[in-house]
Specification:
350 residues, rSAM_sf, 3-stranded antiparallel β-sheet, S-adenosyl-L-methionine, TIM Barrel, Lysine-2,3-aminomutase-like protein, Lys_aminomutase-rel, isomerase, binds iron/sulfur cluster, globular
Length: 350
């Protein structure tokens, strides 16, 4: 029987035939800096006949990760600048991130928190730190939404997740609980009845933001896992990263967004890659990203359109960076472009 095991090291990658002997030494250097993990589901998705396989590119380490550029930084979106207590990031008034765990089932090679996640990362919050995080949320009545991220919170056991959602359910002013995860795609069997029950905070609305970047990730097993979540009353939205060599192509991106909508997941964010160390081989020019995103308009339904987003380096929050369809013209009117590139005039208000 051909048993596929989790991959956690360069040796495991070599044994699985996913890296060449020539690269092993350099990849050990990569592994010393950034964690490696592939689930069996992801390993099986890799097309070994394709040297540029978009699934492998996301999860199999590359020696290009040893190249750090001057603009890259360890904390690209400025979490630390907005962390009042361990595990909490309070960047916007009405919502906080709760980073309970810094472990993931897979380690994405472009991860924006790659210096914080993995075995050498920030680990899991100790009980005293968890209590301090809940105390912080309780004592800030302006916090309407708590976003569990990390790391991937769905690596926690159902029992631990249940403890967290019970604590949040007891805080009146928290109305939304959101989990950011890759688990339904990279480990679909984990989405079972106990886990789904644990994700529901009583009296609150639970959102699941699924991270996936290529339509091949939405396998029938992944779609079935998402259906179990949606059928249980959880709302699903997507988040993807626009990545060179993975999905920087309008047709691929259109198929990804359609796959989300078919799975009852509303496309939400398409992130421009962050300035994480050793990830320049994934970054495309913002102008290229804008062109690809604009071409989705007219190609696929309005339901399938994500917002193209940049997290401003330094912790200043998100900005929508798609091309605008409307401009003020010299005569005081507006010039509006249609999805075919035609220009039309629209009058100013009286
Ligand atoms: S799952 Fe998210 S936090 Fe974990 S490695 Fe991937 S991008 Fe980073």
């Amino acid at each position: 029987m051909n048993i596929v095991r989790p991959i956690k090291s360069v040796d495991d990658l070599a044994n699985a035939g996913l890296v060449s002997d020539r690269d092993r030494q350099a990849l050990e250097e990569v592994a010393a800096r950034y964690a490696i993990a592939l689930t069996p589901t992801v390993t099986k998705l890799i097309d070994r006949t394709d040297a540029a396989d978009p699934i492998a590119r996301q999860f199999v380490p590359d020696i290009a990760e040893l190249i750090a550029t001057p603009e890259e930084r360890a904390d690209p979106i400025g979490d630390h600048a907005h962390s009042p207590v361990e595990g909490i990031v309070h960047r916007y008034p009405d919502r906080v991130l709760l980073k309970a765990v810094h472990v993931c089932p897979v380690y994405c090679r472009f991860c924006f928190r790659r210096e914080m996640v993995g075995p050498q990362g920030l680990g899991t919050l100790e009980p005293a730190a968890m209590k301090a995080a809940f105390d912080y949320i309780s004592s800030h009545p302006e916090i309407w939404e708590v976003i569990l991220t990390g790391g991937d919170p769905l690596v926690l056991s159902s029992r631990r997740l249940d403890e967290i959602t019970r604590e949040l359910a007891a805080i009146d002013h928290v109305k939304l609980v959101r989990f950011h995860t890759r688990v339904p795609v990279v480990d679909p069997p984990k989405i079972d009845a106990a886990l789904i029950a644990a994700l529901k905070a009583s009296g609150k609305t639970t959102y699941i933001a699924l991270h996936a970047n290529h339509p091949r990730e939405l396998t029938s097993e992944a779609r079935a896992a998402c259906a179990r979540l949606v059928d249980a009353g959880l709302v699903m939205i997507s988040q993807s990263v626009l990545l060179k060599g993975v999905n920087d192509d309008a047709a691929v991106l259109a198929d990804l967004m359609k796959a989300f909508v078919e799975t009852r997941i509303k496309p939400y964010y398409l992130h421009h890659p962050d300035l994480a160390p050793g990830t320049s081989h994934f970054r495309l020019a913002i102008e290229e990203g804008q062109k690809i995103v604009s071409s989705l308009r007219g190609r696929i339904s309005g339901l399938c359109q994500p917002a193209y987003i940049l997290d401003i380096p330094g912790g200043y929050g998100k900005a929508v960076i798609g091309e605008s369809a409307i401009r003020k013209s010299a005569d005081g009117c507006f010039s509006v472009s249609d999805y075919r590139g035609g220009e039309h005039s629209y009058p100013p208000s009286e």
